[in-house]
Amino acid sequence: MPQMGAHVTRRDLLRTSLGAAAGLALTACGDGGPAIPLADNAKVRLPEYIPYQGITPDLPGTLEVLDGHLHYPAEPVTAFPGGPPAKGPAISIMTMTFSPVPPPIERNTYWQALNRSLGTKLRLEIAPIADYPSKFPVIIAGGDLPDAMAVRQEIPQRPAMLNALFQDLSEHLSGSAIHEYPYLANLPTASWRTTVYNGGIYGLPMPRASVGSVMFYRADRMREKSLDPNVRDFREFRQLCTELNDPRRSRYALGDPLTTLYFVLEMLGVPNQWRETQGRFTSWLEDERLPQGLDAVRQLAQAGLLHPDAFSVAGKFKDWFGSGQIAIHYDGNAAWNDFYRRYAQDTPGFAIDGMLAPGFDGGPGTHWTGASSFAMLAFKKAPRERIRQLLRACNALAAPFGTDAYKLRKYGVEGVDHELNGADPILTPTGGVETTVPTIFITDSPMSLYFPENPDVVPAQHAFQKRAAEVLVRDPSEGLYSETDVTVGGPLMETMRNELKAIMQGRKSVSSWTHTMRSWRRESGDRIRSEYERYWESINR
Fold first, then answer.
1. Which of 137, 180, 267, 291 is 20 to 30 Å from the Cα of 95, by its Cα?
2. Which residues of 505-536 are buried (b: 16+ CB within 10 A; e: fewer)?
């Protein structure tokens, strides 16, 4: 199933390559005992949610809206007044990164300081995201597991693998037990729902924002042409794109046809992946409004409003937007700061903002939520005291904005990794390299809106989040498990995306979608639906 913006290919990247992982795990370690019945998932008590209240944000958020901070506190809160919280043997963790692999610990001042703050040696096996699918099953099959591993949603036979190899953390985290780890208790309940398997809590979430994506627009381009980005329906959106388009200067309104489609589907109120009604599931692929959305994007393409290479290339859309080749671009929420860091210096007046989908024919549209957790961190089975040490270390890695531990985790050592501008840490070139140690793919605190280089950007980010929160539509399949979706869904979804693009490009008729959708139902869709419905019942009965 597609994810918005920056997530559109990440899910499939892992899901298509992890087919052997669980089988290798069970071969190496035995069958792990009988599987726990699905019905026991309804008995799981998720951790109590205790929001951190150590500082007051400049722009307060909600469960759906991130807190906004204009500046870092001049005197950060001491996260662990009793000293390093995770004293004990070294901790080994396997995880992934989307950034270049950081310098090793012996040449990394940041990593050394992080270890001192924890009171233990954090030994990370870091795989580039493209290599993680092949490395994960090899480590599982070898049987010599690290203390913890990042487990993506695309891993097959997940319940059986977790039952066989990894620790049920319920006694440590369920209900009020989470009080011992107050920064983990600060993680939203929705992110914990993705960790429930076999009647227990099998990992820690890596929390992400509810408003996880943004339809960005170049605000400077809008001002240059005296255009209003607050469109009220699809007709006005198309007119806005027409006025932004300037092929003679190699400037176009839109780039990625798929995320443009998703934006139009938000206008139409199409489900965010699935719709759930009293335990019955309907896919966005079979929604009766999808053909209308396809026809609408087809009109945009035929009018020349998409970049001429939009259907033939991948991975260029972000650069097209930053460099001004396109004016509207759907991407992940974190890209907001990244665009300013990468492109503002070379573009006088560079400015971006976010637009929401209006109703297709007027009125409010919708906005699809992102995943509440990127993945989960599972602990291999170990004695109780070892598990407690691991939890103390992860609790420290979830210390929230405003604490000294957060500042160190995100910005490293002052004078080496960052310099202060007032109270705000600004990464140095060294810090930009060293702080890529991927603690965000172990666990993390709830995200915050903060841009130390340019705090004036934060109010616009917060205002967009508030507007989006009023029309959020969740994916009801998040936290559910379908073996068919994991093993078949990825490659088949790539086929479906190709069919969608063929229709939008005009190579196939809109009416051909009916046959494509029926084939999807026969090949896997109906099985996926049935498996989601069974898992939903196991949690909600």
1. 180
2. beebebeebeebbeebbeebbebbbebbbebb
Query: What whole-number distance in Å separates Cα of residue 444 and Cα of residue 437?
Result: 13
Cβ count within 10 A of residue 288: 9
Among the listed residues 465, 470, 467, 472, the one whose alpha carbon sits nearest the alpha carbon of residue 272: 472
Give Cα 263 to chain centroid, integer Å: 18
H-helix segments, 225-309: 234-244, 257-268, 290-302
Residue count of the chain, please give it.
541
pLDDT for position 133: 84
Alpha-carbon distance 451 to 440, whole Å? 17
Taking residue 279's Cβ as centre, other Cβ atoms within 10 Å add up to 13
pTM for the full model? 0.92
How many helices and strands, by DSSP H and E, does the chain display? 22, 16
> Where are any strands of DSSP class E within 361-408?
367-368, 373-379
Report the amino acid identity of residue 246: D
CA angle 355, 357, 360 (to 5 degrees): 145
Is the separation of the CB atoms in 314 and 12 below 8 Å? no
How far, in Å, CA of 360 to CA of 265, rounded? 9
Q: How far apart are CA 347 and CA 292, in angstroms?
A: 38
Give residue 148's identity as a one-letter amino acid code.
A
Please identify which residue in the block is written with the tokens 């994960």: 136
**Distance, C-alpha 241 to centroid of its chain:** 28
What pLDDT, in 10s, does the model give residues 280-336?
A: 999 999 999 999 999 999 999 999 999 999 999 988 999 999 999 999 999 999 999
Query: Which residues are bridge partners to 246 per DSSP?
Result: 251
Rounded CA separation 154/22 (Å):
11
Q: Which residues sit opposite 420 in a β-bridge? A: 425
Separation between Cα atoms, residue 467 and residue 364, nearest integer Å? 11
Per the CB < 8 A criterion, the answer to whether 204 and 166 are in contact is no
